[in-house]
Write a structure and sequence with these properties.
Structural class: alpha+beta
Number of helices: 64
Distance between the termini: 84 Å
Radius of gyration: 56 Å
Shape: extended
């Protein structure tokens, strides 16, 4: 069996084909994967894919292409890198990273960057292929790599990736180079990216396309040149293009004849007054319009001119073609000035040559040197482009530049008529001729576009004897042909006659070089025109060359020629690198010919132009050293001065490029072997004279040339030594030592008085470092280093800070450190002390920090990382000793210095800081154990060591700052962190040894811990945020530095011992922040520290409240920043619980951990919710949960208030204004009306508590107004008004009263929508903690119905599953890893029954109390018990009624609250039937009332309701009830239901009675078109009566079918008890009579059978509010599954509450007043008889009796007096039992008083018909209602229907005795009922009842009372402000002081918020 063998060389490969890995242990591979190979066996490899190193397996060898690789750490943890070009490696890894991010760009819809990156990636792949193939030349490879790296950097920058440090296109390993060098590379790349370097050289590209004109037909010549209008001269040569007759280029195939580049334009040439000028010449007849003559003679004639400013090209789009307007000159004599006239806009001298004439030209400015352009615009140069040079030399003259161009401009001429009557047509022909008179072929160049010619013809000006041409030609004649050559100008008259001949009439000439060798001087020359009419006379040039050529050099006696009028003016300009026009220069070069002139020539050399000297630099230097060798004694000083002049000339920027020429001369051509003696002697002479000399300028010039003087000295000595075999060596050394002694002496002189010596010293120091390299050619390294050390050491030290010498000293040190001498370790140890001494002095005084940083950088970059030599270690020691302390102080100073506002200064400061930081890091990286030991031993006292540690820890904190380096410098940050953690590990020992036990120093330890915490929390160390490849690289190189630092913190903490108490609780927050870092190892190390803190705190104070408080405070802020996760919560809990198992304080520890864990749960939920986009219920619910947690469990008032405001902001954003008000009210209730000052907090300024509470009140009132919750706003208005009144602030009091009044108006006038309420169950473990397995009731939005609400909830929880039933879920649902939502509608059960039951309270007031301050909600579910009767479902139709009680009332601080308790009761079929009919009766009454009082716009609602009831009854609706409950079987089987059956019978009769009355009203108001329907209803009603067996109504029913007050039904009188009494008591029973529930049913209680559904849909589900019925809004069923109603919008009128009630009296006073009332004052209860007591049934009145009840509403008031009647009767007794007594008669409609006030009440006896299930709620009478003396509001007795038949449930009248008993109960309920006289007074004064907001007090609920505006329940009823009628009766009923307490709970204190 073969074994697996580890591979030696086969380590790295690329997958060629995909491998599925289907074999055992096979590793799946994809094509292109890179694999690392570990082992090999018989054609198989074992290894892993580099992108997933954890998965190892086998794969076939032939699937892998092997590559050479470099192996690091060979063995188990080896890493393999391919040995390919580093650029290729970087490309590969970068493209892989980009690939993943590129796809994400598509997902994020960043299309632009997506496509750009795609193109760049393809481009890089293409370039990669080129590099891999390896066929590129060296230069091309360099260009490709540069292109690749530029693209990589662009992509990294666009994607926000890291900046890659590179050297020569290759990535550098930060461990392989010095930190200072790394910083410099990063800085260079950063700067390169930020600021492109400005270019100083510019070029103009011109491409002539065509000339467009209508009058062409002749060939054209176009000349371009650049013209300076300020100087009135051309700046460049001319560019010449020939055009054909069509205006197109004549040679289109030759692009160089159409394109040119005007080169070497300086930045100063891009001015507005520099122009491109175009001259156009036509070739043809003399006159443009002449007829074609017989001769073919062609003339050059002016055509047009165009001008464009160069400045315009800087702004225009360079790619656009320009169409230049062509202008013609008005008079030909001005032709040469046309361009000037156009520029100056002299319109009279030119005009457009044609409206459509234009020159199409492409113009483009290019920037950079010409070589750069050749690379960038390769196509341009390949295709061909001519170069048009600048006139003269460019700004910088380059050595080796060969130029010999003579430019001649033909300016003008003066000619005589020559015997003609008209002026001549003069043409000038120019020739260049050599010595022999032969024409120089091709040396007359007109412009750069065309090749040179043999001759040149000027253009002809018609009939002009004084022509001006201003035409420039160039004669590029070679230097060797220049001597003896001349230029001849021939003048001809061009005849316009038929022959068209050109007749010669004269000539001029000019020689190019004078006899002495000087060329023709630059300038204007007036040439003589010699007469000549024969061409033959010009053949022999020898004849005319003897003649004078210029009028300026004529001999004085030649007046004949001088007086001639004919002349030619030309301007010459020579641009030559070989010829000179300077005679002095020639005299010096020819010194041997005239020895007597040597002294003069040497003196005049300084006056010669520098460009002339550099032309002949080598010849001049040879001359000088030749003179020195031959006559050293005589001319040594002058030659030295000339040499100094030439050397200093080369310092000029124009000639600095000639330095290499001089260097070459010294190395290769200099031959002065003896010169060194003279040079040393003269130099020493000058140095010795420095101190005495008055004027130092010349000496300073000498010292400026020190570098080259030493070069000549050294080279001369080398040549001498070479020639003589090293003779005179000692003499030379002695001379040099003497020279240096003189230099040291002059340098050591301190400045006396003025500063000339200092300046001279500075000049020498600037030049001195350049000498080191030369000295090294003849002296050893140590000798030169000694020279330098002694020279620099001789400098005066005690100079002033502002002395210029100080900066120069530092500059000299900089050059020294940068020099070759310093790089040698042997010399470095000699120079280092003197360098460090100067550097330390400057850094201590904070001077020239930029230079100091540069010096340090250079010094430290020379220290190699692996330099283990003794010398290197000593160097580090020296630097640490001298510089470390001052370096730390400098970094602190620079980084803490306030930065100036100017943006220009900041980068410099940043550079200095960065350089110093890199120096510090480099130094620390080189320090080893020995260095740290020596460093720490140097501190003589503990204070010094303490200061050092504080300094270095502070500096480290600065280095960690995010702004320290640019954000993409991750490489630099990682290196910094690695060095910091290494240093901290070294220094922590010193901390332990020196600052523990009795020497403990809190400040040092605190600084250490702070640094450690900041270090761990750096963003650049959070590896979880990086890509996998980047994370892998960092972990391989540095490991996880957070864990290392965490272990160090833990170790140091354990060493603290009892000193730990100093850091509790200060370090809890920082350590908590560390534990929140998502690194498991770090958390495991750091979390146990909290146990330690708890333990020590327990020992100190017996508890750990401080630990708990700090933990809670910090958790909130840290988790809101996004730190922490669910894993952390579990880990925190488990680790600490395990740690405290054996502690004595285990119980309190567990409590703390549980509290913190619960807080984390809520904070995590809160953070997750806040990440979502829009404001929704989840966010609000989560905030409420957290807010309550802070209040109830943690009692953290400040955090509580903060979250109040966060919740407030959420509500405002969601436009939940009512909820926002309730939320802000929480804070308001914490404040008191006091003058206590409060600090600035959140957005509140510093103010008094009164002012803040006032502001909060106003804000809350405003929000209540916006939320249309005006009733609540009124109470706050009153409270604020009281405060203003107490301060006599009547202005604000007035405003507040007006606001209160406006609220009343809004209540009555504006519409308000009644919201729906929904019960929501959240089941399953996937819900957030605050929702999980809980049920809530939610207040819906306006117009929101069940379906819309369900959809909204499913949108908020997109992963939730909607449950399709309303049953309680089982445990499987609770524990499921999913989300289940159970939603159905519920009915509110209002607490304010007294307001709702009052007569006369408007419905828009009542509507408020139906849906506000609701604690309890009801949900009915119908079901069948027993056998279901298919014929009649009502027999077995039961209702399961669920009552939900909330923890807080709605609305409140949230739109939903959790259900605290649920109760379940079952309603029997009979009870259900009673409820259904009661509700329908109520609805009918309400509609009839509205119809009678004309509240309806139309009668349709009443019509529909009547139709629904009558039609259902006819079709068997009520008959079904009869069949079900009135049969003998049922009565026999259910004897206990006798009363209920009677009640049902009464209700059925009552309904028939109401229907009859309703039909009467309907008939009165029904429109004509609905009469048939009305008739049908009447007919059906009779059928219904007969089906019920009703032949005739009993007398009492006939007498008063419906008891109305004011002719309207008294709706709302159906009082009912709540299941819950105000004390929270409840009785849950299995079957319950509906009589114990409120009769106000807004929703259908069940889904009835198909037979009864029509009836139920019309009878049930209606609110008692009349406007609800008016709008015919059937409400949805409470079931979420089966609703048999369709919802319609519910619009209600605004209505305030009158629930506040009347002023309260004590029971004693109340009863005494009631007993004293006269019969007229007493409330009458005879109209509310009990129908269940047969003993008290009244006898009907006989017909015609005055007290007989009347149904006619028009009966007068006296007729309606009602006699006393029994208080109850029943509809089901036979008519004979009435004995002629009838029910009371309703009063007349106009009467607004209380009904039947003379009727006396009889106390009824309580019967079983009113079973007392619970005590009744408080009852507030309406302002129109009077009550009986014996009626007390807390009576628990329930009675049957009123005599009016309005309600099936009411309070019964109770005897005085029973009332007395009730007053003596243990806990009386709040009583808001007042006596009848009070009510009368209130009605007469039209005073509205006071308002209050009722809240329920539930002592059993162990939760805080909900925030509200409510008055807390108490024994006494809530007070109200005094009203006018109360003031009037103060004599009879004095007001007790305790009757009017403040309507607010006792506020909690706020801690100076």
């Amino acid at each position: 069996m073969n074994m697996w063998i580890p591979t030696e060389h086969e380590k790295y490969g690329v997958v060629l084909a995909s491998f599925r890995g289907t074999v055992q242990h096979g590793l799946p591979l994809e094509i292109g994967d890179t694999v690392q190979i570990l082992e090999k066996c018989e054609g198989w490899y074992r290894g892993f894919v580099l992108k997933n190193p954890n998965a190892k397996g086998i794969f076939p060898c032939n699937y892998i292409h092997l590559k050479n690789a470099h192996i690091k750490n060979k063995g188990q943890f080896e890493t393999v890198m391919p040995t390919e070009d580093s650029v290729i490696t970087e490309m590969t890894s970068t493209l892989r990273d980009w690939g993943a991010m590129w796809k994400q760009l598509f997902v994020k819809n960043e299309g632009d960057l997506f496509h750009r990156l795609w193109h760049v990636m393809n481009e890089i792949l293409d370039l990669r292929r080129q590099v891999l193939v390896g066929h590129l030349t060296h230069d091309r490879m360099r260009d490709v790599k540069q292109h690749i790296t530029a693209r990589l950097d662009w992509g990294n920058e666009q994607l926000g990736l890291d900046l890659v440090p590179r050297r020569e296109f290759s990535m550098v390993d930060p461990d392989e180079i010095s930190v200072t060098e790394l910083y410099r590379l990063m800085e260079h790349r950063h700067r390169k990216k930020e600021t492109p370097t400005p270019v100083s050289t510019h070029h103009l590209f011109v491409h002539l396309k065509s000339l467009m004109s209508s009058n062409l037909g002749e060939e054209l010549e176009v000349f371009f040149f650049i013209y300076d209008s300020r100087e009135n001269k051309p700046l460049s040569e001319r560019f010449f293009v020939k055009l054909n007759k069509n205006g197109l280029p004549k040679f289109p195939e030759k692009t160089e004849r159409q394109c040119t580049l005007f080169v070497d334009l300086g930045s100063g040439d891009l001015r507005k007054d520099v122009y491109i000028v175009v001259h156009i010449i036509r070739i043809g007849r003399m006159g443009a319009g002449e007829k074609k003559n017989t001769s073919n003679v062609q003339y050059r004639r002016p055509f047009g001119c165009a001008v464009v400013s160069i400045a315009d090209l800087l702004t225009a789009d360079s790619k656009d073609d320009h169409l230049l307007k062509v202008y013609a000159c008005n008079t030909e004599s001005d032709w040469s000035q046309t361009h000037d006239n156009i520029i100056k806009k002299v319109n009279s001298r030119y005009n457009l040559s044609g409206s459509n004439t234009g020159l199409a030209v492409a113009l483009q400015l290019l920037h950079g040197d010409i070589e750069q352009l050749r690379r960038e615009y390769m196509v341009l140069f390949t295709r061909g482009v001519s170069i048009t040079k600048k006139l003269g030399f460019s700004d910088v003259i380059m050595p080796g530049e060969m130029r010999n161009d003579l430019y001649i401009t033909l300016e003008k001429g003066e000619f005589e008529k020559g015997g003609k009557s008209v002026a001549r047509n003069v043409e000038v022909t120019v020739y260049a001729l050599d010595t022999d008179g032969q024409i120089l072929k091709g040396f007359v160049a007109v412009g750069s576009g065309e090749p040179g010619g043999d001759e040149y013809h000027t253009f002809v000006l018609y009939h002009n004897n004084s022509p001006r041409w201003s035409e420039l030609i160039k004669l590029p004649i070679p230097v060797d042909m220049f001597r003896g050559s001349h230029v001849r100008f021939e003048f001809r008259h061009c005849s316009t006659k038929d022959k068209g001949e050109k007749k010669l009439f004269g000539f001029s000439f000019v020689p190019l070089m004078q006899e002495d060798g000087r060329t023709l001087p630059d300038g204007t020359h007036e040439l003589i025109v010699h007469k000549c009419e024969e061409n033959a006379n010009l053949q022999d040039c020898a004849r005319y060359l003897k003649l004078p050529f210029s009028k300026s050099n004529l001999p004085g006696n030649n007046q004949t020629v001088k007086g001639t009028k004919e002349s030619l003016w030309i301007t010459s300009f020579l641009c030559s690198t070989k010829l000179t026009q300077n005679g002095d220069m020639l005299d010096l070069l020819k010194w041997r010919a005239h020895p007597e002139r040597i002294s003069d020539s040497l003196s005049k050399l300084k006056e010669i132009d520098g460009s002339e000297i550099v032309k002949f630099l080598q010849d001049t230097l040879d001359t000088l050293f030749g003179i020195l060798d031959e006559s050293s004694q005589r001319y040594a000083l002058k030659v030295f001065d000339c040499l100094v002049h030439i050397i200093n000339l080369l310092q000029d920027s124009k000639f600095e490029h000639f330095k290499p020429v001089m260097d070459t001369y010294i190395e290769s051509h200099f031959a002065g072997a003896l010169s060194y003696r003279d040079l040393i002697k003269v130099l020493k002479w000058y140095v010795d004279r420095i101190i005495e000399a008055d004027r130092q300028e010349h000496i300073q010039q000498v010292l400026k040339a020190t570098e080259y003087i030493f070069k000549y000295i050294i080279q001369s000595r080398r040549l001498f030594a070479l020639a003589t075999g090293g003779q005179s060596e000692e003499e030379f050394r002695c001379c040099m030592h003497e020279l240096f002694m003189s230099i040291r002496f002059f340098l050591s002189q301190e400045n006396k008085g003025s500063r000339p010596i200092t300046q001279t010293q500075a000049v020498f120091l600037q030049q001195f470092p350049a000498v080191y390299g030369e000295l090294l050619k003849l002296f050893t390294v140590r000798e030169v280093a000694t020279f330098v050390r002694e020279t620099l050491g001789s400098l005066p030290t005690a100079s002033q800070a502002d002395c210029p010498l100080e900066a120069v000293k530092l500059h000299c040190i900089t050059k020294t450190v940068e020099s070759q001498l310093y790089t040698n370790p042997e010399s470095r140890c000699i120079l280092l002390p003197v360098v460090l001494r100067l550097l330390q002095a400057h850094m201590q005084e904070q001077r020239d920090l930029v230079m100091c940083a540069h010096i340090l950088t250079c010094m430290l970059s020379l220290l190699k990382k692996d330099d283990a030599e003794q010398t290197a270690s000593e160097e580090v020691d020296l630097i640490v000793e001298s510089v470390l302390g001052v370096l730390l102080r400098t970094i602190l100073e620079v980084s803490n210095r306030p930065q100036p506002a100017g943006p220009t200064l900041r980068p410099q400061v940043q550079d200095v800081t960065g350089e110093f930081v890199s120096c510090l890091l480099a130094l620390l990286r080189h320090m080893k154990d020995r260095h740290y030991q020596q460093l720490l031993q140097r501190f003589t006292s503990k204070d010094d060591l303490r200061d050092f540690l504080l300094h270095i820890f502070t500096v480290f904190r600065i280095l960690i700052r995010p702004e320290m380096f640019p954000k993409d410098w991750t490489v630099m940050r990682l290196v910094t962190n690695n060095i910091i953690i290494t240093t901290v590990l070294y220094l922590s020992d010193a901390l332990r040894k020196n600052f523990l036990s009795d020497k403990f120093d809190y400040k040092v330890w605190d600084s250490y811990f702070c640094l450690s915490v900041i270090f761990i929390n750096q963003s650049c160390l959070q590896l979880e945020t990086f890509s996998a490849s980047k994370r892998k690289k960092i972990l391989e190189k540095y490991g996880d530095m957070r864990v290392m630092m965490g272990c160090e913190i833990f170790s140091m903490w354990q060493n603290l011992g009892e000193h730990k108490l100093n850091f509790i609780p200060a370090m809890i927050g920082p350590f908590l922040e560390v534990t929140l870092v998502p690194q498991p190892d770090l958390r495991n190390v750091m979390i146990p520290i909290f146990h330690d803190m708890m333990d020590w705190e327990q020992r100190r104070s017996g508890n750990f409240k401080q630990v708990e408080a700090k933990l809670i405070d910090k958790l909130d802020s840290l988790m809101s920043e996004g730190k922490g996760d669910e894993t952390y919560r579990e880990l925190f809990n488990s680790i600490l619980l395990k740690k405290i198992e054996r502690e004595t304080w285990r119980e309190s520890g567990i409590s703390l951990i549980a509290t913190v864990t619960r807080l984390m749960e809520r904070l995590l939920d809160y953070r997750d919710c806040m990440k979502l986009g829009e404001v929704d219920g989840k966010k609000i619910g989560c905030t409420v949960s957290l807010l309550n947690f802070y209040k109830t469990e943690l009692n953290k008032e400040e955090m509580y208030i903060r979250y109040i405001h966060k919740l407030y902001d959420l509500h405002l954003k969601a436009q939940n204004y009512t909820e926002a008000s309730y939320t802000l009210l929480l804070y308001d209730e914490l404040l008191e009306w006091s003058e206590r000052p409060l600090r600035e907090f959140l957005s509140y300024p510093m103010q008094s508590e009164w002012q803040r509470k006032e502001y909060l009140h106003l804000t809350i009132i405003q929000n209540f107004d916006r939320g249309k919750c005006w009733e609540n706003g009124i109470i706050l208005c009153r409270e604020l008004a009281d405060q203003y009144e107490s301060y006599y602030d009547y202005r604000n009091l007035s405003k507040m009263r007006m606001m209160e009044a406006s609220f009343y108006d809004k209540i009555m006038d504006q519409q308000r929508l009644e919201p729906e309420f929904f019960r929501v169950g959240f089941y399953g473990k996937k819900f957030p903690f605050f929702l999980r397995n809980k049920e809530f009731v939610c207040r819906g939005h306006d117009y929101e119905r069940l379906e819309a609400f369900q959809q909204r909830m499913l949108n908020e929880f997109p992963h939730a599953i909607a449950m399709q039933h309303a049953n309680q879920p089982d445990q499987t649902i609770y524990q499921a890893e999913a989300q289940y939502l159970q939603i159905y509608a519920v009915t509110p059960i209002p607490d304010s029954q007294d307001v709702l039951q009052r007569d006369g309270v408007p419905d828009n007031i009542k509507s408020f109390y139906k849906v506000n301050h609701i604690w309890r909600f009801r949900y009915d579910r119908p079901f069948h018990k027993g056998t279901k009767d298919k014929e009649n479902e009502f027999k077995s139709l039961w209702v399961e009624r669920t009552t939900l009680t909330l923890v807080q009332s709605l609305p409140g601080i949230s739109r939903w609250f959790e259900v605290e308790r649920r109760e379940l009761v079952e309603v029997s079929p009979l009870e259900n039937a009673i409820e259904v009919i009661e509700n329908k009766n109520l609805q009918l009454r309400t509609l009839i009332t509205q119809c009678q009082t004309r509240q309806m716009q139309n009668i349709n609602p009443l019509t529909m309701c009547l139709n629904g009831v009558i039609d259902a009854a006819v079709n068997g609706g009520l008959a079904r009830y009869q069949e079900a409950f009135f049969v003998k079987d049922y009565i026999m089987n259910h004897p206990e239901d006798g009363d209920k059956i009677g009640r049902l019978r009464e209700l059925m009769f009552e309904q028939a009675h109401i229907l009859e009355f309703g039909l009467t009203v309907h008939e009165k108001f029904v429109p004509q078109d609905m009469r048939p329907l009305h008739k049908k209803l009447v007919d059906q009603f009779h059928l219904m009566k007969s089906s019920l067996g009703i032949q005739e109504f009993p007398a009492y029913v006939r007498a008063s079918p419906i008891h109305f007050t004011n002719g309207s039904p008294r709706a709302g009188r159906n009082s009912a008890p709540n299941i819950m009494n105000p004390e929270g008591g409840a009785r849950v029973v299995s079957r319950r009579s509906p009589l114990s529930y409120p009769a106000v049913n807004r929703y259908s209680s069940s889904s009835l059978s198909s037979q009864a559904s029509n009836e139920v849909s019309n009878i049930t589900g209606q609110s008692e509010s009349s406007d609800e019925v008016f709008n015919m809004q059937p409400s949805p069923s409470t079931s979420s599954l089966s609703s048999n109603h369709s919802a319609s919008p519910n619009v209600t009128s605004s209505a305030p509450s009158s629930a506040r009630g009347s002023p309260q009296l004590s029971d004693k006073h109340k009863h005494s007043r009631e007993n004293c009332l006269s019969p007229r004052e007493r409330p009458c209860s005879a109209i509310y008889p009990n129908p269940l007591d047969p003993t008290q049934r009244p006898v009907p009145h006989p017909a015609g009796d005055a007290s007989m009840p009347r149904s006619d509403p028009n009966i007068s008031t006296p007729d309606k007096v009602v006699k006393p009647a029994p208080s109850s009767w029943s509809l089901d007794m036979p008519p004979s039992d009435f004995n002629g007594k009838g029910p009371p008669v309703p009063p007349r409609p106009p009467y607004t008083g209380s009904p039947a006030k003379t009727t006396r009440s009889q106390s009824p006896v309580m019967t079983s018909r009113s079973p007392q299930k619970t005590s009744a709620p408080p009852f507030t009478p309406s302002p129109t209602e009077c009550q009986t003396t014996g009626l007390v509001s807390n009576s628990p007795v329930l009675s049957g229907s009123y005599s009016s038949g309005i309600s099936s449930l009411s309070r019964c009248s109770v005897s005085e005795a029973s009332g007395t008993e009730n007053t003596s109960t243990d806990h009386a309920l709040p009583n808001s009922a007042s006596s009848g006289s009070d009510e009368l007074i209130r009605r007469e004064n039209k005073t509205p009842p006071p308002y209050s907001i009722h809240e329920r007090n539930n002592p059993r609920r162990q939760v805080p009372l909900p925030p509200s505006l409510s008055i807390p329940p108490s024994i006494d009823a809530p007070p109200i402000p005094p009203k006018p009628h109360q003031i009037r009766r103060q004599d009879t009923e004095p007001r007790r002081p305790d009757q009017f307490p403040r309507p607010r709970p006792i506020p909690r204190k706020v801690s100076q918020l």
